[in-house]
Amino acid sequence: MLPPPPREQSASTKVDKVLPFLYPVGDVANGMAKVGGMLRKCCALVAVNVLVFAVLFCIAELSYRIYRDGFLGAFKKIRASFMVPYSNLGTSNWVVYDPELGYRLRSGREGVNSLSVYGPEIAVPKPPGLYRTIVLGDSIPAANPGFVRYLADWLLLRGKFEVIRAGIPGYTAYQEVLFFKKYLAATTPDLVLWAYCLNDNHKFLHRFTEKGNLLWTDEASESLKIKSTWDKIVSRSYLLTLLRAGMFARAKKKELSQSKFPWEQTIDFNVAWKDFTWADYESQLVELQRVLQQRNGKLAIIIFPWEPQLLLRNDKEDHAYIVKPQLKLTALCEKHHVPCLDLYPSFSTEYDHGEKLFLDGIHLNGRGHRLTTDRISQFLTEKGLLPRR
After folding, report:
1. What percent of the chain has pLDDT over 70?
2. What is the three-state SS of 3-38?
3. Which fold has domain 95-204+267-382?
4. pLDDT per residue over 342-361, tens digit each?
5. Lowest mean pLDDT: which of 245-249, 272-276, 372-376?
6. Which of 58, 138, 232, 275 has the most crowded Cβ, counting Cβ within 10 A?
7. Separation of alpha carbons 177 and 186, rounded Å
8. CA–CA separation, 194 vs 340, rounded Å?
């Protein structure tokens, strides 16, 4: 008797025999359906989170724009920011373009008078019996409240004094002298206190376009070039641009930390250690002194240290190199008979006692301004730069 013919196996039976370790086909189909459902849920969850993040980012972006540009200004500039890359790098109209100076403070904005300095209008000609002092410089004397205001309070106790806060953020020695000649010489001050910061030896450190937009250094500009679609997105956002600028600043800070002498790697401060830059500064000093002498005014210079110098104050071997700018300027002051106050020794003593005097290494904190006021007050008295009571 012949054996019965073999029955044809179903596909599922074949699979079960070949891959006995797999689930039956029906279970596989159900599992795939479940996986598909989970994938759809995950995609939906991701989409919802992306949407929520986008909405929150738009709210934050708009809030920051309103903070920067005001309510109406924020909406007016939204269209501009989509047309002009990095349009949020403007100055919020706090300066105006000047063909000679590069820029100056906008008159009538934030307490700026018609002579483009902070404070009330300055009487010209000068009232009889008034002793007028101008504090000339960059953002250090521009701070308010700061040592200029504290100095004014101290002088008012002595008689009829006026102190003019003529600090303009970002200015160099060249710009400060030119600005004084154009706008302040006619006020005939009795004394000009000229604040020196270690980045003053440039001709122009910061410049602005005719529309009042900041012109960055070549190095910073390179980091803001549009090279991809992502760059285009970043350039239209205030927050993303702020984040990119912060990352650039952090990278620069890390780079500086790798050098014993930080100024050797900086564009703005390294010039104070370059001998060739001091000839130009000396010409500015001589010119300002000449203009004042023509009007029977006196000149005195206040030298502000840079915090990295103070952090290296205990390096006795390289001390002369660390304070080279101070030594250069005090020598020029002696040469031209200009009273000079070097704040490095006083600041160094405070640092020996664990005190901090800076907000960011350049600009002073409250204690720094108070200490500066005390030292300037003592300096003015010792040098006979104030009239007798």
Report:
1. 79
2. CCCCCCCCHHHHHHHHCCCCCCHHHHHHHHHHHHHH
3. Rossmann fold (3.40.50)
4. 999 999 999 999 999 999 99
5. 245-249
6. 138
7. 14
8. 9
